[in-house]
Design brief:
Blueprint lengths: L4 H11 L6 E9 L21 H4 L2 H11 L2 E9 L11 E8 L4 E7 L8 E8 L2 E6 L5 E7 L5 E7 L2 E6 L2 E6 L13 H9 L2 E5 L1
Parallel strand pairs: 1-4, 8-11
Antiparallel strand pairs: 1-5, 2-3, 3-4, 5-6, 6-7, 8-9, 9-10
Length: 203
């Protein structure tokens, strides 16, 4: 997930302090794992599985640390509603206080009816609000960032990006997560993307 284009762009914004102080966040993980998924398997055991935060949602925890640093304090509640043969929870709710004083919550659940529905991270900051979503943090669902000279990136697919800078447009295809096909880019446009804040909108 660290290499998904929306995640890379948001990490750049945080690193360059374009968002200002991040004061709160919300993580939602709503997936489906039926009872049959755990039958006659190491899955669902405390010793080998460890719980859905380890086996399903560890990438979301990783991004929380990557974006905001370490956790200062934590409160949590967990339950098992629909997986009676397992030794682990199937849903939970966590409240975080980070070392930078940001606070946030995480709701996770593997009881989503029939299919995965959402995996998202919403950030509320001094200079903007944005939500990375889709099923696998591969879309930027919305954003409202303090306006300055910006580069707006729009996409209809995860690997096809359209850059807009003032009256100029340029398209390129990525050759893999976080990479650029150099044949479809040019030095001038790359320089613009390096110098100006980037907003990313995946639809």
């Amino acid at each position: 997930n660290r290499f998904n284009p929306p995640v890379v762009a948001v990490k750049k914004m945080i690193t360059e302090n374009q968002l200002g102080h991040i004061h709160s966040f919300q993580i939602n993980c709503f997936w489906n794992r039926p009872e049959s998924y755990y039958h006659h398997s190491w899955r669902g055991t405390q010793s080998l599985d460890g719980g859905v935060l380890y086996t399903q949602f560890s990438h979301f925890i990783d991004l929380l640390y990557w974006f905001l640093g370490d956790v200062k304090d934590i409160l949590a509640i967990k339950r098992n509603y629909q997986h009676p043969t397992t030794e682990i929870e199937d849903c939970g709710h966590i409240v975080f206080e980070m070392i930078n004083n940001a606070t946030g919550t995480m709701s996770y659940n593997i009881n989503s009816f029939e299919k995965n529905m959402e995996g998202s991270l919403t950030i509320f900051a001094e200079n903007g609000t944005l939500k990375i979503g889709g099923q696998y943090l591969n879309e930027l669902e919305y954003q409202n960032i303090k306006k300055d000279d910006i580069v707006l990136i729009q996409s209809t697919f995860w690997n096809r990006l359209t850059f807009t800078f003032r009256d100029k447009q340029k398209e390129y295809h990525s050759t893999g997560p976080g990479t650029i096909d150099e044949r479809l880019d040019d030095e001038h446009f790359k320089k613009i993307c390096d110098e100006y804040p980037i907003q990313l909108c995946f639809k």
